[in-house]
Design brief:
- By secondary structure, the chain is of the alpha+beta class.
- The protein has one domain.
- About 30% of the residues lie in helices and about 25% in strands.
- It has four helices and six strands.
- The strands form two sheets. A four-stranded antiparallel sheet has the order 1-2-5-6. Strands 3-4 form a two-stranded antiparallel sheet.
- Helix 2 crosses helix 4 (about 145-155).
Length: about 160
């Protein structure tokens, strides 16, 4: 089944009710920040990032001063280009709405994909954002999830 529906993220990792011993005092403090997230499966991390992106996009759409919102969030208005020295300038913010109507994954022992179309109630909507940077020679899109993932890693350190 797909992993895009809301649910608790227990996944068998009940940190307080398992029967192996913990090394020394202070174990309960090890589950903040990065240590906690290391227990999340990649699809859970992606789902968490999509939640952050959705909140970020909602805030951006509602912000009266969109440039100030981006500045407060730490979005760079200039980035290095492919050559490193040419500064790319932020010129556009693109919002794209997608509806996931099914899922496809590699099939075991087959070159074909295993495809599962979703019944109507399982079709999910997501809006994604890209930051568009340009220079005289190139155009670069930064997916907001990549930006937020980098920011999250900075905060988790």
């Amino acid at each position: 089944m797909p992993h895009d529906h809301a649910h608790d993220h227990a996944h068998g990792h009940d940190h307080h009710h398992h029967d192996h011993p913990h090394p020394g005092p202070g174990h309960n403090h090890a589950h903040g920040g990065e240590a906690f997230h290391s227990h999340l499966a990649p699809e859970d991390t992606a789902a968490d990032l999509q939640v952050l992106a959705t909140q970020f996009i909602d805030g951006f759409v509602q912000a009266r001063d969109k440039a100030a919102y981006l500045r407060l969030a730490g979005v760079p208005f200039e980035r290095p280009g492919a050559g490193g020295s040419t500064a790319l300038k932020l010129v556009d913010v693109e919002l794209r709405t997608e509806w996931q109507v099914g899922t496809a994954a590699p099939s075991f022992g087959s070159a074909e994909l295993s495809y599962l179309p979703f019944p109507g109630p399982m079709v999910t909507e997501r809006t994604n954002m890209s930051l568009v940077y340009v220079s005289m020679r190139e155009k670069s899109l930064l997916d907001i999830r990549d930006f937020l993932s980098d920011r999250k890693q900075e905060f988790d350190r």
